[in-house]
Amino acid sequence: MKKDHSPAWPARCITLALLGATAQASPLLVQSDTWFKTSTADSASLPAASKCLVTAGTRLEANGATSPASNHYQVTLSAAPAGCAFSSGYFYSAHVSWHNWLTGPLAVDTPVPKSELSAFNAGYGGYPIWKSNNPEKYSGTGWLMQNGRADAARGGSATPISGCTNAYTFHINNTGRTAYVHLMASNPNGSALTLNAKGSMYSNTEKPLTGKAAGQSYFVAKDWLNGTFRTNISNRSVNAYTATEIAKVTANVNNMIDGRFEVCTDRSVYLYTVVTYSGTTTDAINATQGAAAPGEIYSPGPGKFGREAGIYAASVVGGTSEVILPASGKYLGLAFNTTAKGAGLQEQTQPATMRLADSSERTYGNYGHKYDVTVRMRNNDSYAKTVRLSFASSFTGSTDTPSFTFNSPAKLNGTAIDLWTTPTKPRQTLGTWTIGANSYFDARLTTFIAGLGVTDQQLVVEVL
Asked: For residues 428 and 397, what is the distance between their CA atoms, to the nearest angstrom?
């Protein structure tokens, strides 16, 4: 059994609002053998009377809880666990799953209030992700992001990458003329290295942003979902102390460009995004060693997310959240692509391992990240239940603009769909199923988060 301070995944900041007037007694599922305790202290330090062992798979009813403190839920159970003398205490948050069922029906085109969202049972992995989005709008030539050295103005540090990493970039040409954006790699080693790379980069001239299932960011995500790439580099040798171009795209005036790549090398490497006016490899190599490109820098701060330029810890969000279906007329919202900053939602973003000093400390928005998550809807009763699963954005409004839509290709149990929400139509039905008595149904959703979209989404389960 794991100790209660060493979860299988990094500890998560999970925020649930479970004491609202419409909240019902909610199922609490114990996912790993754990202790129900009278305090948040390590179980090894507590006397036997202050802790009760609860085994994985145990299902309890919980009447109330506070948001986690010291990675624990403070819980009031409907009844004490078997062999336990108390019903109010603490569970280590990574070892239990709690879902906040609300009384419906949920109005058409309405998301679940953010304050009522339940945490998804998420884990984080995949390769690290190198990101270039600050400045988003550039107004001249030079480098946009690099990990090859510290810069006097923008900070950062020499941080060699080895093995495999993902690289994501989104920029807008504000130079007033045609420019080119290059993704470059340099070899700082004294002998040659071997580079493999795959991915796609497009502009909105090539992929016009006209609405649903359109635009440069959508098609980059679609290429990754389908495994069909514009760029494929196999076993390219890069000589010592030289650089190579991985990809290049033409950016017309005011063009947006979006790209996502996987770069694998057998020795350490530095990556760069650079802007040139000529489009030549020579000018791109020179730009990697020159000054930063001018542009609009958005830095983080209180109430400000900033934009990303750095290397971040992980690029994949995965996991299965099992929800135990209550009686008809109830619904819940599961957090999807959320952050604790600002609204205090579940932290699903990733921290920087190296960043430029003027750029985001976390992957707010998770653009370019893969989500591969399953909602397991379990019916423990002796009669069938009908459920509806929806995808929703927490952002609503009276007008629709591209930067406040969510527009990503996806697969639901292997079938291609498009995730599309707007401020005026923030909820999309994914499917409706009848789940037989004492059985369950898995809905697996796989997507890549496309750029230029709103963040803070949710998966909504309704028992009809």
From this structure: 16
d(CA 48, CA 44) in angstroms, rounded, equals 9
Compute the distance between CA of residue 335 and CA of residue 339 in angstroms, rounded to an integer: 9
Query: How does pLDDT run across 151-180, given as a tens digit for each residue?
Result: 999 999 999 999 999 999 999 999 999 999
Rounded to an integer, what distance in angstroms lies between the CA atom of residue 12 and that of residue 348? 8
Place of tokens 């959240």: 321
| Separation of alpha carbons 132 and 293, rounded Å | 12
Cα–Cα distance for residue pair 187/265, rounded to 1 Å = 10
Q: Quick check: helix, strand or coil at residue 161?
A: strand
Please answer whether residues 250 and 117 qualify as being in contact, where contact means their C-beta atoms are separated by less than 8 angstroms: no
Per-residue model confidence (pLDDT) at position 70: 67
Residue 175 to residue 9: CA distance in whole angstroms: 44
Q: Distance of alpha carbon 249 from its chain centroid, rounded? A: 26
Residue 132 pairs in a beta bridge with 169, 309
DSSP letter, residue 45: G
* Interacting residues of 377 by C-beta distance below 8 A, sequence separation 6+: 323, 325, 387, 389, 433, 435, 440, 441, 442, 443, 461
User: Domain-by-domain residue ranges, the chain?
Assistant: 1-98, 102-120+319-348+365-464, 135-296
